[in-house]
Specification:
The chain is α+β, with helices and mostly antiparallel strands and 232 residues long. It is built from four helices and eleven strands. Strands 1, 2, 3, 4, 5, 6, 7, 8, 9, 10 and 11 form an eleven-stranded antiparallel β-sheet that branches. Strand 9 and strand 10 form a beta hairpin. Helix 1 crosses helix 4. The longest helix is centred in the N-terminal third of the chain and has 20 residues. It is globular.
Length: 232
C-alpha cells in the first residue's frame, strides 16, 4: 500500500488515541485532579519570587522568574522556567502507569541537551489534589554522580498548586529552595525556551467535541506530528 502523509496521519491518530486513552486513567483520581489544576492555566505565564533558599541559590537572586504552562496534552505538561535571560529549563510532568513523573529538561542556547538533563523522579504515593512530591530516581542519581553532583542524590522535588499560588520546591539535607508564583496576575509570555519549537499545539483528544469528524482528527494529528518534528 502506498504511504501518504494522510495515511501516516491516520495511523498516528489511531495510535495516539490508544496511548492517550490508556495513559489518562493511569494516575489515580487525586493525581488527575492535581494534573488538571495545573493544565487549567495552559497558555499563561506567571511571575515568581524565591521564598526560601540559601547561598546555593544565588543564581536566582535578583532575576526575573517566570513559569509558562506552555504545552499541554492529556498525559504531559511542559512548563518552561525562565530565570532572567536563561531559558534553559523546562519542567515536564507526565502521567505514568503508577502515578506522575517530574523531569527537568535542560538545554543549551543552541538547543542541544545539557549533560545534566531529564533528571527528576516519580511520585511514591497519591499525594493530594494540591501537592505532589517526586523523590529522585535511580537514573537521576547515576547522572548526578557521573557529573560530580553528589549532594543532589537525595533530592526530593515538590510542586504545589493552589487557586492563587503555584510553588516549585526542592528539598534535601541542608537545602530547602522554594519559588512561589502568583497565579492571580498572568504576565506577558516569555521567549521560546531553548530547544523548543516556535509552534505550540495544545491537544486533548478525549475532550474533543462529539462533532469532530475523522478528517478533523487526521488533520490535527498530522499537524501534531509535523510540529513535534520541528523541536530540537
Amino acid at each position: 500500500m502506498t504511504t501518504t502523509p494522510i495515511t501516516k496521519a491516520l495511523a498516528f491518530s489511531i495510535a495516539t488515541s490508544a496511548v492517550f486513552s490508556s495513559a489518562v486513567i493511569a494516575a489515580d483520581s487525586t493525581q488527575n485532579q492535581y494534573f488538571d489544576a495545573i493544565a487549567a492555566h495552559c497558555g499563561k505565564a506567571f511571575a515568581g519570587e524565591v521564598t526560601a533558599g540559601n547561598s546555593a541559590d544565588d543564581a536566582f537572586t535578583g532575576k526575573k522568574l517566570i513559569m509558562h504552562v506552555r504545552e499541554c496534552s492529556d498525559t504531559e505538561l511542559k512548563i518552561p522556567f525562565h530565570v532572567g535571560d536563561d531559558h534553559s529549563r523546562t519542567w515536564v510532568i507526565t502521567k505514568t502507569a503508577s502515578g506522575l513523573r517530574l523531569k527537568h529538561d535542560h538545554r543549551h542556547e543552541d538547543g542541544t541537551e545539557d549533560k545534566v538533563t531529564m533528571y527528576g523522579g516519580d511520585t511514591a504515593y497519591s499525594g493530594s489534589a494540591t501537592q505532589q512530591s517526586f523523590p529522585v530516581d535511580a537514573e537521576s542519581i547515576a547522572n548526578f554522580n557521573e557529573n560530580g553532583l553528589t549532594a543532589s542524590v537525595t533530592n526530593v522535588w515538590h510542586m504545589y498548586i493552589e487557586p492563587s499560588v503555584f510553588t516549585y520546591r526542592l528539598t534535601r539535607e541542608n537545602r530547602d529552595f522554594r519559588v512561589d508564583f502568583d497565579l492571580t496576575k498572568p504576565v506577558a509570555l516569555p521567549p521560546v525556551p531553548w530547544g523548543m519549537s516556535n509552534v505550540v499545539l495544545t491537544i486533548s483528544l478525549h475532550k474533543l467535541p462529539c462533532t469532530a469528524s475523522l478528517n478533523d482528527l487526521i488533520l490535527m494529528s498530522w499537524i501534531f506530528a509535523q510540529t513535534k518534528g520541528q523541536s530540537a
